Amino acid sequence: MLFDARTNTDLLFASADERWKNEVKRRFGPTCVPISPTRTECRGEPGSFLRKTFDAREQAYRQWLRARGLGDFRLSTPAHRPEPIDYLALLKGPDAAMARPHWH
Fold it and tell me: Which of 5, 77, 86, 99 is the most exposed place for a label (fewest CB within 10 A)?
């Protein structure tokens, strides 16, 4: 084997990802940026070349994860709770922290 399994999956995923991105740009125009492969329109219709490149990318991604002993994080729940929103800071702007009283 010329490379180890990790390097092979790096090359395989990079190639599949590039092919998928090129097909998204071909389908939706050169200014389209493939933001997320999870968006329905970026997957393509069943049997289309876009769907075939998407499926190849997903398979390469799973092989990439498997070579590293990782699971697909997209399927898991968040590990931490989101931070609470500071509504005062949103209303008053970036200097809101200075406007709040100090409770020492």
Answer: 77
